[in-house]
């Protein structure tokens, strides 16, 4: 009996030790489209595999709001969140708050450019989770109905096609719009407007050397062109739209064209979508210089203030690995950061355009976060505010880019 009691005691001690060694990790997840559910599912798979627990922190939808909240948490050196979901343009802003993942997570199979975008001073701030680039969504049924054989290749073609389809559809649906995009004054507008500038040959606001280049005729023309859509092929309310607002209108069958990220494909093909099976995807139009898509994407970093850094790093390693990236690509159209997955038959079956638009994802235009470093947020806010002033009719393109150039020079004067 004494021997049995000892064995029972030993088993209890081992069980207690096992429970005490299990970590609880808090993971910050985005909430756009299917993002939250897929994040929860991936975390649950890791928890089941490792015996650890994961709590989910639901981040705000808007990128700017999310950044503000994260900055508060990190400035307070809070250990409440262990793993943060970081925008591709944030490493320079937040580097000092994150564990160096170099040598801790194998990133050799990822796109080198995305790995490098997450590095600051030779420190690996985050691991690539999914990449993004702006795309043009269109209604294949309406394209055919109105006599078009292909989506627009230029912004001028888009305006003409959108106006024709809108006029026809509004005979029975007064709310129908030709084109919807992200026109609200936030980071999403920075992404849209950068695409307009680059496509017109107007540069990237600040070049790779840190020189302010936005005050030029092509940049002004790009903004004036976009402003000409508002109230004509785009609703006046487009200046308040974010990704989900635009997607809601397109997915309910009330728009011909939409600019959005790849995630919108999976939602558009869902059973709840009124345009399921009627969606095409193409590169965004050219303004005369080139087709341009802004590089987006999100990455996972481990907080310096986490009390469970080893487990948090293991979670990042798992979520950013090929198995999880494949699941997310198939179920939510989240673009992998691993080139080999773009040849995966299951992924291509779920997302045919991953293959045909591969060049769009690999040649996307980067926002000027690298040259402006810790001042990027100020630069982006100044840019989106200038663009918003043109879209809402408060300024013309030339006046806006001239003032913006002065504002950016002032920000640069304080060092970036």
Automatic annotation (TrEMBL):
Signal peptide: 1-22
Source superkingdom: Bacteria
Name this protein carries in UniProt: ABC transporter substrate-binding protein
Any Pfam family matching the protein: SBP_bac_1
Keywords assigned: Signal, Transport
Organism expressing this protein natively: Deinococcus antarcticus
Keyword Signal: yes
InterPro entries tied to this protein: Bact_solute-bd_prot1, SBP
Family classification: Belongs to the bacterial solute-binding protein 1 family.
């Amino acid at each position: 009996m004494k021997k049995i009691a000892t064995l029972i005691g030993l088993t209890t001690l081992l069980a207690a030790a096992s429970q005490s060694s299990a970590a609880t990790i808090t993971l910050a997840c985005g909430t756009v489209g299917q993002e939250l559910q897929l994040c929860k599912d991936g975390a649950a798979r890791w928890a089941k595999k490792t015996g650890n627990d994961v709590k989910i922190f639901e981040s705000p939808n808007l990128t700017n709001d999310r950044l503000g909240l994260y900055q508060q948490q990190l400035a307070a050196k809070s250990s409440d969140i262990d793993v943060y979901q970081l925008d591709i343009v944030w490493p320079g802003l937040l580097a000092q708050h994150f564990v160096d993942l170099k040598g801790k997570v194998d990133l050799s199979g990822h796109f080198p450019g995305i790995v490098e975008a997450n590095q600051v001073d030779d420190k690996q701030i985050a691991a690539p989770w999914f990449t993004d680039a702006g795309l043009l969504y269109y209604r294949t049924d309406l394209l055919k109905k109105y006599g078009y054989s292909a989506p627009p290749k230029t912004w001028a073609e888009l305006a003409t096609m959108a106006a024709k389809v809108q006029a026809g559809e509004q005979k029975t649906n007064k709310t129908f719009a030709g084109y919807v995009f992200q026109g609200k004054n936030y980071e999403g507008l920075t992404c849209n407007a950068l695409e307009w500038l680059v496509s017109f040959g107007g540069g990237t606001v600040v070049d790779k050397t840190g020189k302010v280049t936005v005050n030029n005729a092509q940049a002004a023309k790009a903004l004036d062109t976009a402003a000409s859509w508002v109230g004509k092929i785009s609703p006046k309310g487009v200046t308040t739209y974010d990704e989900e607002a635009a997607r809601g209108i397109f997915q309910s069958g009330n728009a011909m064209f939409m600019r959005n990220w790849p995630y919108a494909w999976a939602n558009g093909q869902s059973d709840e979508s009124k345009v399921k099976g009627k969606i095409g995807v193409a590169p965004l139009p050219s303004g005369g210089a080139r087709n341009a898509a802004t590089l987006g994407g999100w990455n996972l970093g481990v907080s310096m203030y986490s009390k469970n850094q080893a487990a948090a790093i293991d979670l990042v390693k798992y979520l950013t690995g090929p198995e999880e990236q494949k699941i997310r690509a198939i179920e939510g159209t989240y673009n992998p950061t691993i080139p080999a997955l773009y040849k995966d038959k299951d992924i291509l079956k779920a997302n045919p355009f991953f293959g045909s638009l591969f060049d769009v994802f690999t040649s996307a235009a980067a926002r000027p976060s690298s040259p402006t470093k810790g001042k990027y947020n100020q630069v982006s806010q100044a840019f989106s505010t200038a663009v918003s002033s043109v879209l809402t009719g408060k300024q013309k393109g030339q006046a806006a880019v001239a003032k913006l150039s002065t504002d950016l020079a002032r920000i640069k004067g304080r060092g970036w």
